[in-house]
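Quick one:
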Amino acid sequence: MTEPLRSPRLDLLPLRVEHAEEMAAVLADPALHTFIGGEPATPEALRARYGRLVAGSPDPAVSWHNWVLRLRAEDRLAGTVQATVTGDGAEIAWVVGTAWQGRGLASEAAGTLVEHLAQQGARTVVAHVHPDHAASAAVARAAGLAPTGERQDGEVRWLLRPGPRAGRIVGR
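Output:
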């Protein structure tokens, strides 16, 4: 089960289908899709996608965890983070709407997520970042991940191995 998380400025709220309308506006800038492809989704398309995500992975060995980022000071949604957990490892991703970029919110949310995953026993955390996306690379680095030099679908694989004590990050 996906539980709410909290960081200094953000509430990471478990994704609900009802978030689709507000998130469609948050994610409406075509520039967000420069590195990930596609185009902004309509509220209807997001409702359908969120319904699939909330229903969970069809594979019982895989857990999907998705959060929306609520910026407390503005009482608005500002982006998402997600983790796909398999065994003792997790793959993470993040996106922050254009209007909220440049404030460190993605780094704060990704760091909170990595700490939570470490506390839950994740032995590895992976993210895939487009090689030309400097801002996303900075988020990965701030969350404690390091580039591996490996590529998957053209993206650089970033990796973190949390330390033996929950929430403590040790060497990579």
